[in-house]
Amino acid sequence: MRILVIGSGGREHALIWKLRQSKQVNKIFCAPGNGGISAMAESVQIKPNQHDDLLAFARDNQIDLTIVGPEDPLAGGIVDKFEQAGQKIFGPSKAAAEIESSKVFAKQFMTKYHIPTAPYKVFDNLDEASQFVGEVNLPVVIKADGLAAGKGAIIVNTVDEARDTLQKIMVDKAFGEAGNQVVIEDKLIGEELTLMAFTDGKSVLPLLPSQDHKPVFDEDEGPNTGGMGAFCPVPFASDKLVEMITDLVLEPAIRGLWEENRPFRGILYAGLMITDFGPRVIEFNCRFGDPETQAVLPLISHDLAALCMAVANHNLELDELNFFDRFSVGVVMASGGYPGSYDKGKLINGIDRAISGNRQVFHAGSTFDNGKYYTSGGRVLCVVAQEDNLQDAIASAYDGVNLIEFDNAHFRKDIAARASRRRFRFSRQV
Q: DSSP E strands: which ranges in 260-378?
């Protein structure tokens, strides 16, 4: 197969790393890619939102399968365009992707199909929203309706903080048109969990449960980011819990989207809070998570290209996925100042030293020039390690981080630390 991967982040680097292990794949292109991806795939200087140019490239280069990484092109209808032209593509249609691209749609959809989530209200008027936050018990979560690069959900603890947040989202347009409407919902208490699943619109195949670390600083302090690290499997996520989430969340969502004439094909991502009353959905995403994908993919024993092609062909026949009996931990190295303003163009040293048989370095915001890597984004690298127990996987990941240097590098020092204090063994393995 000749495969085109769309995107430029750590998720796309991990996808390409896994695709290269397939005996069915002989050529991979990436549009536009990044510094690290350029060593594994041929970079194509087309942006993810240039749908016509991407389609023309796929036709001209006899691409057998296109895999879409980020949410923006999915929300923009790239899958519809490719399928109408007879090109195989992995990902949901624009209508199905609305489960991520509109928080309002997602909440109303969950209510309609009895998918457990937090109580909420929707507002398109600042005065009404401001009055509401003065009358409810705090804290609450305020979410911009549209796509906001993973930064559009803000926990507020006081009325003044809530009203300032509403002003920034709805009036100052901190997230652009994504803030025309907001969802205000109860803050859920419990343990966060991510469960992604392959689906062809009918069958649902869950991956290993993982946990992201979104706040920028240790102990979950500071503003939310796109994700500062992830690990899997997760100590409290037993087979029974995964089956419960599949029964209560994933399968009803896939059935509901089918009934809404929005058949979902690709990766359905459920961001969850495991509360004292059971799992509750925080959000749905319409694609592989980032950085969860970097931690999860190394543990899948199946051929990724074959799985993605089966989804694209609407013919996912496996009963379940198998996984290697290991733990995987990923630590993001970010530019100083992220998720705010940060400098670019910093020389990166030590990447080659950090890579070993059980440790990978996935590039997110890097460029490659004249034999050297330089920073070009907020999240620069994700160092991922697999070991037989969680403590060793944590140690190996941080050993890799400590071998890499660039000016003002920032990373959390507590990825998977809380989980490592729990005894655990995941049973669905090979």
A: 266-275, 278-285, 327-335, 347-348, 359-363, 366-369, 372-375
pLDDT in tens, 44-92: 999 999 999 999 999 999 999 999 999 999 999 999 999 999 999 999 9
With the C-alpha atoms ordered 46, 47, 53, 55, is the resulting torsion angle positive or negative? positive
Q: In what helix (H) or strand (E) does residue 186 lie, and over which residues does it extend?
A: strand 182-186
d(CA 159, CA 254): 37
- E-strand ranges in 291-378 read 327-335, 347-348, 359-363, 366-369, 372-375
Structure tokens at 33: 């890619």
The rounded distance, in Å, linking the Cα atoms of 80 and 74 is: 9
| Cα separation values, 166 from 143, 159, 222, Å | 9, 10, 19
Cα angle 290, 291, 293; round to 5: 80
What are the angstrom distances between the C-alpha of 138 and each of 117, 119, 179, 253? 17, 13, 21, 29
Give the C-alpha separation, 384 to 401, whole Å.
9
* pTM tops 0.90: yes
**pLDDT (tens digit per residue) in 22-46:** 999 999 999 999 999 999 999 999 9
CA distance 287 to 267: 5
User: What was the pLDDT predicted at 151?
Assistant: 82
